Amino acid sequence: MATATTEQRTRTAAAKKAAATRKRNAAKRSTAAKKAAATRAEAERTYVEALATQAERAVLIPVGAALVARDTVVETAQGFRTRTGVQRELKRFGRRGNTARNRAVREVKRTRTRVERELRQRRVQANRLVKRNRRQVEQQVKRTRRDVERGVNNLPKDAGKLVDRVQEQVTSLA
After folding, report:
1. Are 49 and 41 in contact (CB under 8 A)?
2. Domain coordinates of the chain in residue numbers?
3. CA 155/CA 151 separation, integer angstroms
4. Which of 40, 72, 88, 136 is most deeply buried (CB count within 10 A of its CB)?
5. Using an 8 Å Cβ cutoff, are 42 and 48 in contact?
6. Weakly modelled stretches of the chain, pLDDT under 70
7. What is the DSSP letter of 1?
8. CA torsion 127→128→132→137, rounded to 10°?
9. pTM, two decimal places
């Protein structure tokens, strides 16, 4: 009977151990489920907050733009309240226009100078190319003329030799 008691104790200990493991696993699952639920709730809250922020921006941007425009108009109108203020603003506008005109004139002069320089360079290059090609053509004509003159000058001599050879061939055949 002693073996039965030891066997029972072993089974009871194993059962207790298994029950403890099941309890720990159940607790872990419960904790994980709670954490997942909290994460989902946080994500939904963050999404709603993002939507609220976008809606708020859609309203605040036009309001801000209107306020900036109003401030600009008020600031501009302050200079035109008195006669001296109007004269001061007109002088300022005149100086600004003068500066813009001078800048544009300088830019046009720079552009014109650059275009003229490029045209001169291209013209010089074209002249050099024409001169080089003309020299090459003239040299080629001189060489060809010399070769033709040599051929023409040697023609009677070569014709005489040819006649002599033909006569030799005819006499050797007869």
Report:
1. no
2. 17-78, 86-149
3. 6
4. 88
5. no
6. 1-4, 174
7. -
8. -10
9. 0.41
